[in-house]
Amino acid sequence: MTTFAVTEPLTGRTLREYPTATDEEIREVLARADATHRTWGRGTAAAERCARLARVAELYEERAADLARIIAVEMGKPVAEGREEVALVADIYRYYAEYAPAFLRDEPLGHAAGGDAVVRKEPLGVLLGIMPWNYPYYQVARFAAPNLAAGNTLLLKHAPQCPESALAMAQIFRDAGLPDGAYVNVFATNAQVADVIADPRVQGVSLTGSERAGAAVAEIAGRHLKKVVLELGGSDAFVLLDTDDLDATVALAAAGRLYNAGQSCNAPKRFLVMDHLYEEFVARFAAAVGGIRPGDPQAPATELGPLSSGAAAATLREQVAGAVAQGAEVVAGDLVPDGACMAPVVLTGVEPGMDVYRQELFGPVSVVYRVCSDEEAVRVANDSPYGLGASVHSRDLGRALRVAEQLEVGMVYVNGVDASAPELPFGGVKRSGFGRELGRYGIEEFVNRKLIHVRP
């Protein structure tokens, strides 16, 4: 039987296994979620739903230490970063607890077509969330907080390597007083997921994961005319036009690249540096990241944890080795096998014909490009199948904004990287997916915007 398992990345030891649900159990939770949405979504006021979410936020804060420890063991996130993730998650639930009632109010359209009109935002019903391992709590919060506030009920299929964080979240919702069936964790197989998507009681699907997984889910959902939100891969560009403090810029670049061991879809992965800064940036950046070594994620002082698995590290090493074989140069780091641990690597000399030029590098590997004009920076940044995010760095705000406006991405940060916050919408274009999470836009993805027109 397929299992969800806790396999410690640092040691490779499988500590505990959890069996997948039976088909009968899947049918039962579907029925429960469908029944609950009629009372949770239709019969419970938004203010009451949001009061439950406020309690969810409190419970995350109260259990932060345990929650951080769970994901340190499951996927190797350093405990300090785990606590930061939990704090952000609490902020997300608290944000929707406060603002969702206003977001969900009727939207008056005024006098139109001989009468008065409003748009009412109503819950759709049962939704399926398919979530990844790299931010076990945060990715779920982006999906769960707005949709529970809106009155939808949720089935949550988490990554197979994160069963205990999945169970911990389900317990938080129970302890916060959500009704049975409002949020249901399911240890489902891929075949069962396909059946759930096809079920007429399920109204939509949200997936955060790989491009391949997103394409598979979108295909199934499309056959059954189900709404889908996809947050997929990214190869974000960090565009450095100029700076009056190169050390600070390098520190920002290094921190952005190495957070969560580089396993973030929206981390800066490609560094596009103007010619007059290129040599010095490469030297300082290589020194900055090259001095960091992975360690035990449960040790409080650890800055860089292992990758999620030995297999993930092996895949990343193969990508780097392939780039070197095609002519790229390693200016920091090495490819010495060390289980799931991988020291940061910096590549230069990557050209458009190389495989790695168009790949996502999901780990602590950076590629630095020399560019000679703003136009070239825009061209290289956009020459990617992905369009999640980017950042632009310059003392000249007007120049930075002109470049930002030309980037084919869903999010641009000027003089910063990855400003994650509950109020900022998150999502991409191109092969990074579609739809938005967080902010007021996140609550509108899975609601029925019903027009009500009244003639006197």
Automatic annotation (TrEMBL):
Listed Gene3D superfamilies: Aldehyde Dehydrogenase, Chain A, domain 1, Aldehyde Dehydrogenase, Chain A, domain 2
Alphabetical list of Pfam families matching this protein: Aldedh
Keyword entries, A-Z: NADP, Oxidoreductase
Superkingdom of origin organism: Bacteria
GO molecular function: aldehyde dehydrogenase [NAD(P)+] activity; succinate-semialdehyde dehydrogenase (NAD+) activity
UniProt key word Secreted: no
Database matches in InterPro entries: Ald_DH/histidinol_DH (IPR016161), Ald_DH_C (IPR016163), Ald_DH_CS_CYS (IPR016160), Ald_DH_N (IPR016162), Aldehyde_DH_dom (IPR015590), ALDH_GabD1-like (IPR044148), GABD/Sad-like (IPR047110)
Record has Oxidoreductase as a keyword: yes
Domain Aldehyde dehydrogenase intervals: 3-451
Entry similarity comment: Belongs to the aldehyde dehydrogenase family.
Protein name per Swiss-Prot or TrEMBL: Aldehyde dehydrogenase family protein
Species annotation: Georgenia ruanii
Organism taxonomic ancestry: Bacteria, Bacillati, Actinomycetota, Actinomycetes, Micrococcales
